[in-house]
Amino acid sequence: MNIFNIKLEFDHDAFRNTIEKCVSEKGKGYVCVVDGNVLSVTCKDPEYQKVVKNALVNTCDSSYIAKMAGDIYGQKFEAYNGPRVFEHYIKKPYKQLLLGNTEETYQKIVEKMRADGGNPENLKYQPVPFAKVEDFDYAGIASQINEIKPDLIWVSLGAPKQERFMSLMLPHLKQGVMFGIGAAFNYYVGSINEPKMQIGGLRFIWLQRIFEEPKKQIRRCWHFLTVIPKVKREEKRKLKSKKA
Questions:
Q1: Which of 68, 97, 141, 213 is deepest in the core (most CB within 10 A)?
Q2: How many CB atoms sit inside 10 A of residue 202's CB?
Q3: What is the 3-state secondary structure (H, E, C) of the chain?
Q4: Cα–Cα distance for residue pair 210/219, rounded to 1 Å
């Protein structure tokens, strides 16, 4: 649905169907995993908002965003966060590529897949150099990706960098669905743990991250908190105009 001036797919089956249809047709596209940080940047940066809008499909990474949408529209929405998306697809027999993060994390993912009875043979890793998003050699990186011919490409550069990276990479790819997946690799191997606490559908992942990365996460949470009133107000106004 079009909500908060971006696209968000709250129907998990529809989300997966869109990805799997694209893969089956050897198509290409990218997926943004929308948390509070991503949403707050879309509110402040029109170019970044276009990047998120132009995605193949987006998933809601934040239980609070899902609840906020539900409160406005009188429906029940459930987040489908990055770690869950990654865990779902890493088990599938697709040809997959981990782009970014570290060789050490890749090896840990391979070990966990083997321990869980999975087959890591179709899982490849490609590092990318540390650079500003406008300085990457997109054609050069894409040529290596195109040789692998992956169905799924997991991009771990951190938001908002990874979303911009995917939009600039897309024209150079021949096939493959890219996911801006952030810290999902680290959740999968257990170097970051999902909180067990849950109240009314809220999972408090942001609170866990604050303890683990206080400086970075407090700044992100503050930016999100400052845009919430505007986001709610604009969405309620849009809904009211539709009903009028």
A1: 97
A2: 16
A3: CEECCEECECCHHHHHHHHHHHHHCCCEEEEEEECHHHHHHHHHCHHHHHHHHCCCEEEECCHHHHHHHHHHHCCCCCCCCHHHHHHHHHCCCCCEEEEECCHHHHHHHHHHHHHCCCCHHHEEEECCCCCCHHHCCHHHHHHHHHHHCCCEEEEECCCCHHHHHHHHHHHHCCCEEEEECCCHHHHHHCCCCCCCCCECCECCHHHHHHHHCHHHHHHHHHHHHHHHHHHHHHHHHHHHHHHC
A4: 10
Residue 182 or residue 38, greater confidence: 38
Q: How many CB atoms lie within 10 A of CB 236?
A: 13
Say how far apart CA 153 and CA 89 lie, in whole Å. 11
Strand bridging mode 57-60 / 96-100: unpaired
Tell me which of 56-70, 108-122, 165-179, 186-200 is least confident: 186-200
Q: Taking the mean position of all CA atoms in its chain, how far away is CA 41?
A: 14
pLDDT digits (tens, 9 = 90+) for 152-176: 999 999 889 999 999 999 999 999 9
Quick: pLDDT tens for 198-226: 444 444 454 455 445 555 555 666 677 78
Q: Are 182 and 33 contacting, i.e. CB atoms less than 8 angstroms apart?
A: yes
First vs last Cα of the chain: how many Å apart?
Answer: 20
